[in-house]
Design a protein that fits this description.
48% of the residues lie in helices and 13% in strands. By secondary structure, it is of the alpha/beta class. The chain has 2 domains: 15-244 and 471-480, P-loop containing nucleotide triphosphate hydrolases (Rossmann fold); 246-402, P-loop containing nucleotide triphosphate hydrolases (Rossmann fold). The strands form 2 sheets. The protein has a 7-stranded parallel beta sheet, sandwiched between helices. The chain has a 7-stranded parallel beta sheet with strand order 10-11-9-12-13-8-14, with helices on both faces. Helix 2 packs across helix 5. The longest helix has 26 residues, at 3-28. The radius of gyration is 24 Å and the shape is globular. The model is unreliable at 12-29, 237-243 and 466-495 (pLDDT under 50).
Length: 495
């Protein structure tokens, strides 16, 4: 990249930042932030029970939106205090005398469901508001009892919530508030079909909807368009409501274990699409082979390719039919993928400016993305120099272990299998009973377990990647930022 191209990129970034600031001036003052002294006594008592001494930024900014029932998307990571940001206002709006579900919180895992439920119970205290967690992998008994007693706030995974809706043990006729917590992880876990099924049970009338997510890549923005109506977008990296941006992070990995580390990250992140940058043609070829051997849809782009093969790869990129493109900087120059969710730097570049060029491939058109670097100790120092030079916030993350991957893959597989089971008609459900004795027999021996693991692995590879459809009629920027002062027409359920 020459200096003229670098200057051009910098100028484009400045223009986008200025436009975002102008666009959000009106939006950021729609509701003023609140502080502890602004809260009613009941809220302060709840905070005291939870041991809070002050409000976190996400709580101060998001609470007024929930109280005003104004749809909102919040870009916020785990540990930022987002649970309190929606639970406290929900407790204020729930009517304890109405024995029905009035607030529904969708979460990606049973652990998060229990965590949110515990915090909600602590904040609720003796107010009479009943909160229950609903998730798979356990019996229905306690959950059914909570529904019969009239749980006011239901926190759960989409799959088990859908089971209760199908059984009619849960109804949403009195629902007032819908929250998506860690929406990006829910899509990563494969919950999209279940979420769309849950949507069929939402009331026709107005329901305030709020989405919290660490990132807002195109798939999450598409989900927001399908569930939220003209939401404001709140990012916590600045003081204003603003356009989403790219997250820069890195993992310190052993030099001899980069290939396996890359696979573990892909399994955990489950990105919709990514460019994986390497510094040499030889490394590009090696990484492409590794990914293909693990069953990923991957191809390479390097100067060694014939023009025919290069055009074939480029056409797959343009058509959005290639999930992972492994490339050198020279080969990838000039390629624009608007819906790229991740940039992975298998090898950090030698030139500082090249990092900006690579990272700039994601987080476009109002979406957010992630720029991930795999580095050893020496490369980590170079990466920090780049961050300092360009005033970037650089986050170090712990490398996931094989046990972490096994846990996430198991949870994801359960979601996928339960979804397919719900889709079976009576005849198909009857037909599969002939294999129940064999399944029991296989589970009792090591040889049988190997066969079951093989079948699960094959099914996982076939079921894993099913992105939700993107609604082409809606502009992304209008979704994440709306400064109109006109009254909004609200909606209930969308079919």
């Amino acid at each position: 990249m020459n200096q003229e191209e670098i200057d051009s990129l910098v100028e484009m970034a400045k223009v986008e930042i200025e436009a975002a600031e102008q666009e959000t001036t009106a939006v950021s003052s729609r509701f003023p932030s609140v502080q502890v002294e602004d809260l009613p006594d009941s809220w302060r008592e709840a905070m005291a029970r939870a041991g809070w001494t002050k409000l976190m930024p996400v709580q101060s900014k998001a609470m007024p939106y929930v109280m005003a029932n104004y749809d909102l998307m919040v870009q916020s990571r785990t540990g930022s205090g987002k649970t309190g940001a929606f639970i406290l206002p929900i407790l204020e709006r729930v009517n304890p005398l109405l024995n029905a579900c009035q607030a529904l919180v969708l979460v990606p895992t049973r652990e998060l469901a229990q965590q949110v439920t515990d915090e909600a119970k602590m904040l609720a205290g003796e107010t009479g508001v009943r909160v229950t967690a609903v998730y798979g992998g356990v019996g229905y008994g306690n959950q059914l009892q909570a529904m019969r007693q009239g749980a006011h706030i239901v926190v759960g995974t989409p799959g088990r919530l859908l089971d209760h809706l199908l059984r009619r043990s849960l109804t949403l006729n009195e629902l007032q508030i819908l929250v998506f917590d860690e929406a990006d992880r829910m899509l990563s876990m494969g919950f999209y079909p279940d979420m769309k099924q849950v949507q069929r049970y939402l009331p026709q009338r107005r329901v305030g909807s709020f989405m919290f997510s660490a990132t807002f890549p195109p798939r999450v923005l598409s989900l927001a368009r399908q569930f939220l109506h003209e939401p404001d977008f709140m990012g916590l990296s600045t003081d204003n409501v603003h356009v989403a941006e790219t997250t820069h992070c890195y993992y310190v990995v052993p030099p001899t274990d980069k290939d396996r580390s890359l696979v573990r990250l892909i399994e955990i992140e489950n990105p919709d699409s990514a460019i994986i940058f390497c510094n040499t043609k030889m490394k590009v070829n090696y990484v492409r082979v590794v990914l293909q051997r693990f069953g990923y849809d991957a191809d390479e782009l390097s100067s060694d390719l014939s023009q025919k093969d290069r055009e074939r790869v480029l056409q797959r990129v343009r058509d959005g039919k290639l999930r992972f493109l492994v490339a050198t900087d020279v080969a990838a120059r000039g390629i624009d993928i608007p819906e790229l969710s991740h940039v992975i730097q298998y090898e950090p570049p030698e030139d500082h400016e090249v990092y900006i060029h690579r990272a700039g491939r994601t987080g476009r058109a109002g979406a957010s993305g992630e720029a991930i670097s795999l580095v050893d100790f020496t490369e980590k120092m170079k990466l920090k120099q780049i961050a300092k030079r360009y005033e970037m916030t650089l986050e170090e993350r712990p490398l996931p272990s094989d046990e972490d991957v096994a846990r996430v893959v198991a949870e994801r597989m359960m979601v996928l299998l339960e979804t397919k089971l719900r889709e079976r008609d009576k005849l198909q459900a009857e037909r599969m009973q002939r294999f129940v004795p064999l399944a029991r027999q296989l589970a009792e021996s090591e040889e049988g377990l190997a066969l079951l693991a093989m079948l699960l692995d094959d099914s996982y590879q076939q079921l894993l990647y099913t992105p939700p459809p993107v609604e082409a009629t809606t502009d992304t920027r209008s979704t994440v930022s709306s400064s109109s002062s006109k009254p909004r027409r609200r909606r209930g359920r969308r079919n």
